[in-house]
């Protein structure tokens, strides 16, 4: 619709919108997270949901105890290699459309335990992550910012066309392979369909 | 608390045949420790716990130590014929010492408010005979810590009620706290690598990764 016409109509008390806007507006304002914490970042996540920071302002206060009812997985804390298969399995059990926020240094990269023998170097090696939050742990404001970033991302999603999100593409996967416990490491150590080591641009 | 020498004398009287050795700590304040042989370890532990004068009723900490195979070089003077004249010549002898694993117990007495007494147990080697007797039957609190040592150092505790891996998964083959542990190579992406990490990351960077 022409922007001038829309503006003119709204002056007359007639509001127009698109189905896409309404659909995404509804979705972005009721993102229900999975109540699920792995380490100290979970404490900040809990703080963000309480009265002082009040995650309810974003429609995300309903922490669901079941992955079947959740839209968002906040990976809050250190993902050990022993825990990684369970995290991927929980993600697989969530219905589409589903989103992931990797919260804190450990969840995005392994953090202070990066060179340890038992910590996964970032959950994005196995599942697609929508928003990464750095910090150790990030303050609740950082989580709120991640929420707003995610809301902006949901708001921009087209329902049709080439750039429609994964859950609207028939053939795209909604489940990702759960890594197995190997003799020395997880098998496979990362999912090549989801994660490639980013190329580093070196200053000459 | 009695001195370690007094405790050692007491133990030798109470547990006949026990081979005890005091390992000096080196530091001025550090407590010396008592090395106990594996055959008499449980008897020694029971005596330490039940003797009214000692009453070590609390094992506050159990940990492992990995001692690798070492080569000790000794310089010995040997008489040799050099150009028809007998001379003293320095000769370097290499002595190989096999490695072993150690389990260290820190004991306290809650009743008499003294401690710590540091007990050491030694395995025969670092491979097939990495065994020590479990002291969990004496101090119940040692159970999980002995499991952790089993998990991370690969020491088998004979007589442990539930010896399974505790931190790593079943089927894991390595012992990560051993000094010769080789970690899996997942250094594909190291944006701020330095030191030994940089060495490992360089190979991936040469292949075009991060």
Give a quick summary of the entry:
The complex is a heterodimer of chains A (204) and B (210). Chain A is of the alpha/beta class. In chain A, 29% of the residues lie in helices and 8% in strands.
Descriptive overview:
The complex is a heterodimer of chains A (204) and B (210). Helix content of chain A is 29%, strand content 8%. Chain B has 2 domains: 143 residues, NADH:ubiquinone oxidoreductase Nqo5 subunit (Beta Polymerase, domain 2, 2-Layer Sandwich), CATH 3.30.460.80; 29 residues, no CATH class. In chain B, strand 6 and strand 7 form a beta hairpin. The relative contact order of chain B is 0.13. At the A-B interface, loops of A face helix 4 of B.
Indicate the topology.
The complex is a heterodimer of chains A (204) and B (210).
Chain A: H1 3-11, H2 19-28, H3 41-49, E1 72-76, H4 84-93, E2 99-103, H5 104-109, E3 131-133, H6 140-155, E4 180-181, E5 186-187
Parallel strand pairs in A: 1-2, 2-3
Antiparallel strand pairs in A: 4-5
Chain B: H1 4-14, E1 20-23, E2 33-36, H2 41-50, E3 58-67, E4 70-82, E5 85-97, E6 100-109, E7 114-122, E8 131-133, H3 143-153, E9 156-158, H4 196-206
Parallel strand pairs in B: 2-7, 8-9
Antiparallel strand pairs in B: 1-2, 3-6, 4-5, 6-7
């Amino acid at each position: 619709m022409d922007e001038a016409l829309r503006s003119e109509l709204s002056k007359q008390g007639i509001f127009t919108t698109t189905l896409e806007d309404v659909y995404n507006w509804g979705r972005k304002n009721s993102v229900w997270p999975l109540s699920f914490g792995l380490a100290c970042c979970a404490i900040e996540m809990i703080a963000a949901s309480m009265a002082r920071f009040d995650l309810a302002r974003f429609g995300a206060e309903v922490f669901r105890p079941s992955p079947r009812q959740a839209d968002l997985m906040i990976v809050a804390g250190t993902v050990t290699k022993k825990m990684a298969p369970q995290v991927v399995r929980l993600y697989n059990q969530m219905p589409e459309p589903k989103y992931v926020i990797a919260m804190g240094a450990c969840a995005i990269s392994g953090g202070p335990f990066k060179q340890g023998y038992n910590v996964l170097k970032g959950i994005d090696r196995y599942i697609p992550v929508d928003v990464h939050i750095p910090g150790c742990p990030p303050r609740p404001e950082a989580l709120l910012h991640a929420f707003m970033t995610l809301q902006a991302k949901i708001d921009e999603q087209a329902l049709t066309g080439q750039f429609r999100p994964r859950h609207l593409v028939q053939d795209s996967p909604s489940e990702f392979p759960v890594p197995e416990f190997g003799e020395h490491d997880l098998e496979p150590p990362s999912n090549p369909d989801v994660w490639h080591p980013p190329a580093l641009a070196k200053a000459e | 608390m009695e001195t370690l020498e007094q405790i050692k004398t007491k133990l030798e009287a109470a547990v006949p045949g026990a081979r005890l050795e005091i390992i000096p700590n080196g530091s001025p304040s550090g407590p010396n420790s008592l090395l106990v042989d594996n055959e008499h370890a449980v008897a020694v532990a029971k005596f330490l716990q039940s003797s009214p004068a000692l009453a070590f009723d609390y094992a506050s900490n159990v940990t492992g130590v990995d001692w690798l195979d070492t080569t000790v070089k000794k310089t010995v003077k040997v008489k040799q014929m050099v150009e028809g004249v007998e001379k003293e010549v320095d000769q370097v002898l290499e002595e190989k010492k096999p490695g072993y694993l150690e389990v260290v117990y820190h004991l306290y007495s809650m009743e008499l408010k003294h401690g710590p007494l540091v007990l050491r147990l030694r395995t025969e080697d670092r491979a097939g005979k990495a065994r020590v007797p479990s002291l969990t039957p004496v101090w119940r609190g040692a159970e999980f810590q002995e499991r952790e040592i089993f998990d991370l150092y690969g020491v088998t505790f004979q007589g442990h009620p539930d010896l399974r891996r505790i931190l790593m998964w079943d089927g894991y083959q390595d012992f990560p706290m051993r000094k010769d542990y080789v970690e899996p190579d997942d250094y594909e992406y190291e944006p701020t690598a330095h030191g030994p990490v940089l060495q490992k990351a360089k190979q991936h960077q040469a292949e075009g990764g991060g």
